[in-house]
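User: Let's play a game. I give you a shape written as tokens, and you guess the letters that built it. Ready? Here's round one.
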């Protein structure tokens, strides 16, 4: 009899993969990050890093907080380069 795979409900250890999302830790917190290949990108999204649109067909990442309070509404679609540069691109305080 084949065994049934059960979905794990707990979060993976940081740096481990869930199969569809990678856990990452940075100065801005713990995140789950999923890569979206261009062939699966079918909608237009606005990148919070650069405030430009991510057009259909453009590969990008989806990130959301890795805590139990994170929900579908917390997911954000980012250009990969914007996600990687988010610590350097934060708004500066002007006097």
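Assistant: Ready! My guess for every position:
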């Amino acid at each position: 009899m084949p065994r049934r795979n059960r979905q794990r409900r707990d979060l993976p250890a940081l740096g481990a993969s869930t199969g569809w999302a990678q856990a990452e830790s940075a100065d801005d917190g713990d995140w789950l990050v999923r890569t979206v290949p261009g062939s699966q990108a079918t909608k237009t999204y606005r990148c919070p890093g650069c405030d430009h649109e991510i057009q259909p067909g453009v590969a990008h990442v989806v990130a959301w907080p890795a805590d139990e309070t994170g929900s579908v509404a917390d997911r954000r679609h980012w250009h990969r380069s914007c996600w990687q540069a988010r610590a350097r691109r934060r708004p500066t305080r002007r006097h």
